[in-house]
Design brief:
Elements lengths: L3 H11 L7 E2 H7 L6 H11 L11 E2 L15 H9 L4 E2 L2 E2 L2 H4 L3 H4 L1
Parallel strand pairs: 1-2
Antiparallel strand pairs: 3-4
Helix pairs in contact: 1-3, 2-3
This protein binds a DNA duplex (13 and 13 nucleotides) through helix 2, helix 3 and strand 2.
DNA sequence: ATCATGACCATCC
DNA sequence: AGGATGGCCATGA
């Protein structure tokens, strides 16, 4: 079962529109735990176990790097999914990161 | 309560 | 550019 913290993370991640991405740190801050960015990634690991679908591929690190791509199967799926949504990924990182970046604090 | 873990972040070298 | 270090915090054993 998911804890409240994870629920918040999942809920926020699901709010990320297509063609947009967000960062662990931004999500953490949006939840009020700005320094718990690691927990966001931790939660993402459980995302696959979540009942509702979680677009974890839309979550990257502060540099737009696909840090968690190795958790997908296969790893390249992350970039593929992003590319399918119009997000340009090059060398495991998001191009025009600032443009496609979706800030929960700003949107919510 | 303590220890170890981690899909991070910032900084230093 | 790339590796190492410390910090921060939730989760589970």
């Amino acid at each position: 079962m998911e804890t409240n913290f994870y629920e918040q993370v999942y809920a926020l991640v699901r709010l990320i529109p297509e063609g947009r991405v967000s960062s662990y740190g931004a999500i953490a801050r949006a939840l009020g735990a700005g320094k718990a960015s690691r927990m966001v990634g931790y939660a993402m690991r459980y995302a696959g176990l979540a009942q509702a679908p979680v677009p974890a591929h839309r979550v990257v690190n502060s540099s737009g790097l696909l840090t968690g791509k190795f958790h997908f199967s296969p790893p390249e799926q992350m970039a593929e999914l992003l590319a399918a949504e119009g997000v340009v990924v090059e060398n495991d990182k998001v191009r025009h990161f600032k443009q496609v970046f979706w800030d929960p604090l700003k949107e919510i």
